[in-house]
């Protein structure tokens, strides 16, 4: 018995001893990672503590979270009874879903077509141009888009009038029912070329022997795209789809913030802007935090659901 | 008989297909490029003449007046300086943090690697949200400081994973032999790993620099009242907001408002848009080859 404890002790000691020896041996590795790990804690993990505020009636009176009044789920009750919340939720989901579907379809089609170009120079040229809008900010994009859609001398109105579709310019930026479409198309203009890169890389990985075999069997180019290229990038499409489903509900607010204005507010307000407006401009911190928690939790749920579905279909996991 | 028909038919349908693709691609290129060229032309065109309309991609009455006027705004000059500064500082700090973390995570003998990987990956999916982050920045007394531009987002999990997957491709024996020669881990990182990681670092540097140059929301949220810390994007955003229909412009700079009265707000907007875009256009051709690589690198781990 004694002997057993003794050996266990030495084992234990040698295990902790080994830990400290490696620790000292790897001291530079720790020096290079620990400061940043702490940094991430302060700026990414510590603010999660602030989630407690959502269960309080937080007043910015200098008191800490522990000295505020606890109200349970009251903030969430107010949130779920607010009519504006449902409007905002509708806007968020509508723009996300429109962006998701059109973004995927157009980027994939663009990549497929680009891949069919046989003159290398032309292909390179088109691709280089297509990335360009991705690198400008939404502020610049907004400035350009509002100019193009402007009712005085905007090119879109000029073309529509020139073709005889309309007789007087449309006030694009002032029409609520056009806002979702404008955001979706702007996103396509800005991001299609960039999103296509990843599909092109996936297409490049498909073995040429598959195409040779298809050609021998008499498949034309459209048939080759349908039966070889598309199935070849299926897993890439699935992975990206799942990751973007996780972001359906917090899909950014920059474009809505910048492209929107008071005339289209009923259609442009998204969850993040809603929390910003209530939380900061009206100093209802607890309420704003409740909105933030709602979107974080829903996006995690969406991510796991999408991943679960993917797992069931393909027996693989993305995350 | 059939083979002959096939051989004749395929090239024709192929050519039709090629032409169709070429037409679509030319349309795409025009749709992407025309807005930029139109804005560029308008920014160099006399503002009273622009109101008449009909400017496409060449200015009709060439002038530099729009640019002279916008560069007389103090906000724009300060904004330019701060934007350049935050881009330089933010990129350097971001590169240091991402490469160091990536180096430690790629070391099989580093005990913390599994934990740190998961710990970083979580931050990609869970975020506290705008309000708690805002209150944290306020509690740390970082409102109205330059630090708020570069410090909160210092560590980006995505960037760490991109560089890490690149370092994983470098044979570990190289590090081991350096160790036998008496180099410590920091020296290995600095002398061996960093020089061999330059393609990945260049990609990440590009992402960081573009991100820094393009952000305006942190200025809006934390430094809106600190005129000496304004950024170029924020100045553009303010001009946009002040001229959009239905918004009450909160544009405080009086010399800007006066100038907007002498030349049209539209011309001011166009000129500022070009000033904000040009630095990106200048580096774009040089870095073009890197970001394709970075995008596909990130896809492996992302």
From TrEMBL, chain A:
Q: Which UniProt keywords apply?
A: Membrane, Transmembrane, Transmembrane helix, Transport
- Hey, what's the signal peptide range on this chain? none
Q: Which Gene3D superfamilies match?
A: MetI-like
Which sequence ranges are marked TM in the entry?
A: 28-48, 93-113, 232-249, 285-310
Q: Which GO terms describe its cellular component?
A: plasma membrane
Which positions fall inside the ABC transmembrane type-1 domain? 89-306
Compartment(s) where it occurs, according to its Swiss-Prot or TrEMBL record: Cell membrane; Membrane
| Gene Ontology BP, a term | transmembrane transport
Pfam families with a match to the protein in the record: BPD_transp_1
Its membrane topology, per UniProt?
Answer: Multi-pass membrane protein
Family that this chain belongs to? Belongs to the binding-protein-dependent transport system permease family.
Recorded protein name is Sugar ABC transporter permease
Instruction: Identify the species of origin.
Output: Cohnella endophytica
């Amino acid at each position: 018995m004694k002997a057993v404890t003794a050996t266990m002790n030495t084992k234990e000691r040698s295990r902790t001893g080994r830990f400290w020896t490696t620790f000292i041996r790897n001291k530079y590795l720790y020096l290079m990672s620990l400061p940043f790990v702490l940094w991430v804690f302060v700026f990414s993990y510590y603010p999660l503590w602030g989630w407690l505020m959502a269960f309080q009636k937080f007043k910015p009176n200098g008191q800490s979270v522990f000295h505020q009044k606890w109200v349970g789920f009251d903030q969430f009750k107010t949130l779920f009874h607010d009519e504006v919340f449902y409007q905002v939720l509708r806007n968020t989901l509508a723009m996300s879903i429109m962006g998701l579907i059109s973004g995927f379809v157009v980027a994939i089609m663009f990549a497929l077509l680009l891949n069919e170009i046989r003159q290398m120079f032309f292909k390179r040229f088109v691709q280089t141009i297509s990335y360009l809008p991705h690198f400008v900010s939404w502020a610049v994009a907004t400035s350009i888009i509002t100019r193009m859609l402007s009712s005085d001398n905007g090119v879109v109105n000029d073309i529509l009038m020139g073709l005889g579709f309309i007789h007087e310019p449309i006030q694009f930026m002032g029409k609520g029912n056009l806002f979702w479409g404008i955001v979706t198309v702007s996103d396509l203009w800005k991001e299609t070329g960039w999103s296509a890169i990843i599909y092109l890389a996936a297409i490049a990985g498909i073995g040429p022997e598959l195409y040779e075999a298809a050609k021998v069997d008499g498949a034309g180019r459209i048939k080759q795209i349908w039966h070889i290229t598309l199935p070849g990038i299926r897993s890439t499409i699935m992975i990206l789809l799942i990751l973007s489903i996780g972001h359906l509900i917090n899909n950014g607010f920059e474009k809505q913030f910048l492209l929107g204005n008071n005339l289209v507010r009923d259609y442009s307000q998204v969850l993040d802007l809603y929390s910003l407006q209530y939380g900061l401009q009206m100093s209802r911190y607890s309420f704003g935090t409740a909105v933030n928690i709602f979107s974080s939790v829903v996006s995690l749920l969406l991510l796991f659901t999408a991943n679960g579905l993917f797992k069931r279909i393909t027996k693989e996991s993305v995350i | 008989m059939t083979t002959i028909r096939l051989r004749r038919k395929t090239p024709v349908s192929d050519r039709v297909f090629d032409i169709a693709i070429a037409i679509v691609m030319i349309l795409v290129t025009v749709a992407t490029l025309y807005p930029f060229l139109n804005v560029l032309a308008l920014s160099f065109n006399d503002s009273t003449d622009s109101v008449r309309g009909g400017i496409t991609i060449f200015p009709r009455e060439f002038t530099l007046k729009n640019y002279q006027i916008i560069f007389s705004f103090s906000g724009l000059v300060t904004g330019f300086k701060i934007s350049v500064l935050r881009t330089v500082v933010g990129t350097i700090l971001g590169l240091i943090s991402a490469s160091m973390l990536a180096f430690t995570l790629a070391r099989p003998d580093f005990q913390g690697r599994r934990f740190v990987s998961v710990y970083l990956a979580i931050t990609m999916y869970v975020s506290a949200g705008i309000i708690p982050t805002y209150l944290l920045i306020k509690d740390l007394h970082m409102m109205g400081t330059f630090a708020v531009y570069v410090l909160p987002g210092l560590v980006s999990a995505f960037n760490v994973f991109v560089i890490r997957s690149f370092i994983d491709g470098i044979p570990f024996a190289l590090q081991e032999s350096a160790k036998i020669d008496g180099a410590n881990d920091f020296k290995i990182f600095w002398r061996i790993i960093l020089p061999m990681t330059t393609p990945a670092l260049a990609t990440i540097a590009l992402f960081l620099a573009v991100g820094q140059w393009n952000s305006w929301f942190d200025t809006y949220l934390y430094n809106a009242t600190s005129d000496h810390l304004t950024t170029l994007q924020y100045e553009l955003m303010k001009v946009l907001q002040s001229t959009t229909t239905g918004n009450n412009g909160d544009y405080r700079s009086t010399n800007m408002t006066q100038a907007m009265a002498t030349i049209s707000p539209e011309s001011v907007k166009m000129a500022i848009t070009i000033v904000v875009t040009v630095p990106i256009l200048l580096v774009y051709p040089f870095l073009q080859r890197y970001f394709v690589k970075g995008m596909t690198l990130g896809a492996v781990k992302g």
